[in-house]
Amino acid sequence: MYKSLFAALVTLWSANALAAPGHQANGTQPANEAKVDRVIQVEAEEMIFGPEALTIAPGETVKFEIHNSGALAHEFVIGDRAAQEEHRRMMQEMGSHGHGHGDHGGHDMAEGEHGGNMPAVTIAPGETATLVWTAPEGASQLEYACNIPGHYEAGMVGQIDLEG
Amino acid sequence: MATKNITDLSLSRRQLLKGGAALGFGAAAMGLAPAWADPWGQSNAYPQGAVEGNDIALAIRRETLAINGRNARPITINGTSPGPLIRLREGQDATLRVTNLLDEPTSIHWHGLILPPAVDGAPGISFAGIAPGETFTYRFPVVQNGTYWYHSHSGLQEQLGHAGPIIIDAAEREPFRFDREHVVLLTDWTYEEPGSVFRNLKTAEGYYNLQERTIADFLAEVRENGFRETARTRAMWARMRMSSRDIADVTGSTYTYLVNGQAPEQNWTALFKPGERLRLRFINGSAMTYFDVRIPGLKMTVVAADGQPVQPVPVDEFRIAVAETYDVIVTPEADTAYTLFAESMDRSGFARATLAPRLGMEAGIPERRRIADRGMEAMGAHGMDHGDMAGMDHSNMAGMDHSNMAGMDHSNMAGMDHSNMAGMDHSNMTGMDHSGMQHGTSPGTSEGGLLLAGAAQPGSQYDQAGIGIDPEERRILVYRDLKAFRPWPDRREPEREMEIHLTGNMERYMWSFDGKTFSQIDGPIQFRKDERLRLILVNDTMMEHPIHLHGMWMELENGAGELIPRKHTINVKPGERVSALITADAEGSWAFHCHLLYHMDAGMFRVVRVS
After folding, report:
1. What is the domain partition of chain B in residue ranges?
2. Which of A91, A157, B1, B405 has the least CB density, counted as fewest CB within 10 Å?
3. 10 Å Cβ neighbour count for B543?
4. A103 neighbourhood in chain B, CB within 8 Å
5. Among B73-77, B211-215, B311-315, the least confident range
6. Cα separation of B153 and B176, whole Å?
7. E strand residue ranges, B473-575
């Protein structure tokens, strides 16, 4: 039962990874690339993102280049505080199923589509991943976070100020 | 002669007071320290004051102080009990001058610190102890960071509050973030003299156990299980000379459980601003008490164990064995108070503090849990299959008294779980000291080499929180959760295994390793210099034992492969079999013992010689 859930999530993630992770649903990667306004480099390391906060104008299209210089896998997920919390709760529940029985307790669990349209990417240690994202209108504060169990709580969260 | 000694003592006392004040140390000077002056500053985290720097002076006295408003005679360090927070920095050379103003020898052991044997502070091993009136200077390079503690290693002095926290600030960024930190030092205080506590334990095991089963319990159990089953269970426990409610030797009937020296009624309070990430540095500096710690309303994310960083684990509760430390991160969002609740494992009492945005606030105290009953689950956890023990001669099992077990019908031991015992590998037991255990047959014996480094031993219970905790109720930290970020430097497979049994006779209050108390053994345990060793600990008793090795890390083989965590103190549950990898790189003689103070004093102590 658990195994199949895990498989389903991996499949979900693969599908998601192939599709553009952009927030305006099905925009294709090249189209997004074409109108990138800014490239922002983010360093992910245990248990901190650098920079720790960002200011992005509504409507601005940003290409994040996230480098994982730590020893563990991390995610980079954008969403409001409540969505991040919900995502975290799900990750924790998935993790607790496997609790004490092997190494798949959430840590290998890549980002799925749960939590709505949260743009997300998972970065293996030593790797760099990119994520193109257009800042929405009408939100004032979002977070970029890693919701692998414990990582957010230990400090892997940054604020995006959208009011300029 | 005697007069002269007294004169000398009072002289050095005066000198020290003068010297201490001039250097800015001692309780009187503490208010001047900038960090201490700021009520929100990190050093305010600990009410007994802090000392830091390259030259730290500590004065040990016995004096009359109030503990929970009542006259007490603790041992103080710079005027407080527990002692001041010692704050060091990774990479510095520490100099700590300890002056003994007691009328008996004393010592300070820096628990968990990797340092040369001469400054480890365990008297009679690589250090003579500190005579009355003498100042001993500990000098050592600080080669690690994290949360540790210090305590006397002389006699039963630790029970008198001769202990305090150590924080070593990291040279490089730690793998987590926090805005504020607080130290939470848990201790168990008794107004009795420790010597008399020990005598009471010796003369009447269960002396402090007011939770013995009553006739009412018996009748309730009869209603539930029927008379025959109940009577048989009781009789079995009686024959084994144990009470099923023996969770702790010394209990809340004599102990007042303290947080940073404050009783529950005094409600030590740690301040925060809502939304801040707080780092709480938990230290169990108790003599005898395990605590179950939680903060209702807050998730705690464990980020370090025994001073060493671990991959973060969000939990609702954790059990902290005597001498362990855990660092957790909490983020209280609301402008409200939270209760920090540390219930003693035997449920005979609790320590309590408050996290609050302002002084004077408090939250409710959680309902206490029922007294845990060792019952049959403890028997079941005992890593031996009694069903297959035909031909094993138990009469010589030193330490465990099975002499009255004749007639025990193992086939009816309902609820015994032997399912985890398959595949117990006894093939590597050659050359081990069985202390007279006659293995007529060795069930489950198989060919094969040593287990791979990091693999969990059959018979380990790393995924279990332990007695009296319901894992369904909330998320509890277990040893299986602890994972390092990166493999520790020595990744060699073990060359050799050494198995040590934790043994005891509860009724006579004898505690030992391999059935022999410290006074009965004739030499140290030998580690070869630089060898990679697997130490296997088998708990043949019905109690938890926190096992501490001085001078070297123990890498706990909890199944995390190369990411196994390293610890200075390992809790071994009743009947459990655990293992740790050790790199024997610290030449010299070191203490190895159960950190339950009265168990250590009773003989659960050995010297390890690395040569």
Report:
1. 2-173
2. B1
3. 23
4. 561
5. B211-215
6. 33
7. 496-505, 510-513, 525-527, 532-539, 545-549, 554-556, 566-567, 569-572
Cβ of A70 within 8 Å of Cβ of B329? The answer is: no
- Chain-chain contact of B311 with A150 (C-beta, under 8 angstroms): yes
Nearest partner of B233 among B211, B218, B248, B214, judged by Cα: B218
Instruction: Specify the residue for token string 């892997």.
Output: A156
Q: CB A153 to CB B312 under 8 A? A: yes
User: Do the beta carbons of residue B464 and residue B478 sit within 8 Å?
Assistant: yes
Q: How far apart are CA B395 and CA B388, in angstroms?
A: 17
Whether the ω angle into residue B34 lies within 30 degrees of 0, i.e. cis, is: no
What's the rounded Cα separation, in Å, for the pair B77 and B56? Answer: 12
| CB-closest option in A47, A72, A101 to B176 | A47
Cα B468 to Cα B305: distance, rounded to the nearest angstrom: 22
Half-sphere exposure of B463 (CA within 13 A, CB side): 16
Mean pLDDT for B433-450 is 41
Place of tokens 């030259």: B55
| pLDDT number for residue B543 | 92
| Single-letter residue type at B440 | G
**Does B226 score more than 80 pLDDT?**
no
Task: Choose from B173, B313, B474, B564 for mutation: most chain A CBs within 10 A.
Answer: B313
B71 in helix, strand or coil?
A: strand
**Rounded distance, CA B355 to CA B361, Å?**
9
pLDDT at A164: 60
B contacts of A99 (beta carbons < 8 Å): 463, 480-481
Return the SS3 of A64: strand
CATH architecture entry for A2-161: Sandwich (2.60)
In angstroms, the separation between the Cα of residue A17 and the nearest Cα of chain B is 26
Of the partner residues B177, B314, B331, the one whose CB lies closest to the CB of residue A149? B314
CA atoms within 13 A of residue B576's CA, in its CB half-sphere = 23
Tell me the three state secondary structure of residue B173.
Answer: coil
Q: Tell me the one-letter amino acid at A6.
A: F
Q: What angle do CA A41, A43, A46 make, to 5 degrees?
A: 165
* pLDDT computed for residue B207 by the predictor: 80
Show which of residues 310-329 on chain B sit within 8 Å of chain A, judged by CB atoms.
311-314, 329
Yes or no, beta carbons of B475 and A154 under 8 Å apart: no
pLDDT at residue B436 is higher than 90:
no
Length of chain A: 164
Residue B161's nearest CA partner among B243, B297, B29, B263 is B263
Distance CA B162, CA B185 (A): 13
The CATH H-level superfamily of B2-173 is Cupredoxins -  blue copper proteins (2.60.40.420)
Question: pTM for this one?
Answer: 0.80
ipTM score of complex: 0.77
DSSP strand pairing (B93-100 vs B588-594): unpaired
Q: DSSP per residue over B91-106, as a string?
A: TPEEEEEEEE-SSS-B
In B133-287, DSSP assigns E strands to 135-141, 146-151, 163-169, 180-190, 255-259, 268-271, 278-284
Identity of the residue in B312, B331, B480 whose CB atom sits nearest the CB atom of A100: B480
Give the largest CA-CA distance in chain B.
73
Which of B175, B301, B313 comes nearest A46 by C-beta? B175
